[in-house]
Amino acid sequence: MQNHQQQMQGFGGGIIGPQYCAPYNVDLAIVRKVLTLADSFSVTDINGQSPFTLKGSLLTLQDHRVLLDAAGTPVVTLRRKLMTAHDRWHVFRGDSSDMKDLIFSLKRPSLFQLKTELDVFLAHNTEEKVCDFKVKGSWFERSCVIYAGESLNIVAQMQKKDTAQSIMFGKDNYMVTVYPNVDYAFIVALIVILDKINKRQKK
């Protein structure tokens, strides 16, 4: 655990921002409406507060999303790189799409996967020889684990939670636990992209 804390402190206490880091576990519920034309995500914490909402454009349904904070201010912009086989996504600060504002990118390490695996590279890791974070999971089981780099240090976990209400109203409910000193805005952005990649693979 000490190595994990040292590693997270090496990222300056926050990948997107230190205000999204807490010295304790952060539990979030992410709900996605699945019977709508455009994806609709809501994020709530254990106090019922909504730290983030997701905004998308119908004109760029597959490749562009903006994560907003509770005040409606853009936190990050998620953009899928077109014409790429590995489902590469870029995440920029605020509502920017300029490479100078790049925070991190991610891609599938291989084209054919039985289980979901994504490699995450922070902006300064331009050589991309070793990933900074790795996402592993089974989308069929609606669960995933996010690790720090190639290590076994877990920084967040997600699992699907089925309820009578979610089934009746066509919603996907994900319960996410973000570990101490880990940027939970970063984790939410990863899960949104993970969801988009897996939706594309079903088509």
TrEMBL record:
<dbReference type="InterPro" id="IPR038595">
    <property type="entry name" value="LOR_sf"/>
</dbReference>
<keyword id="KW-0812">Transmembrane</keyword>
<feature type="transmembrane region" description="Helical">
    <location>
        <begin position="174"/>
        <end position="194"/>
    </location>
</feature>
<dbReference type="Pfam" id="PF04525">
    <property type="entry name" value="LOR"/>
</dbReference>
<keyword id="KW-0472">Membrane</keyword>
<dbReference type="InterPro" id="IPR025659">
    <property type="entry name" value="Tubby-like_C"/>
</dbReference>
<comment type="similarity">
    <text>Belongs to the LOR family.</text>
</comment>
<protein>
    <submittedName>
        <fullName>Protein LURP-one-related 15-like</fullName>
    </submittedName>
</protein>
<keyword id="KW-1133">Transmembrane helix</keyword>
<dbReference type="InterPro" id="IPR007612">
    <property type="entry name" value="LOR"/>
</dbReference>
